[in-house]
Amino acid sequence: MYSSQPAEVAQRWESEGAERLHVVDLDGASGGVPTNLKEIQEIVSAISIPIQFGGGVRSAESIDQMLGLGVERVILGSRALKDPDFMKEMVSAHGDSVIIGVDAHDGKVAIHGWQDTSEITAVQFAREIQEAGGKRIIFTGIERDGTLEGPNLERLEEVLDAVDIPVISSGGIGYLNHIESLIPLVEKGVEGVIVGKAVYEGTVSLPKAIELVR
Question: How far does Cα 144 stand from its chain's mean position?
Answer without folding.
Answer: 14
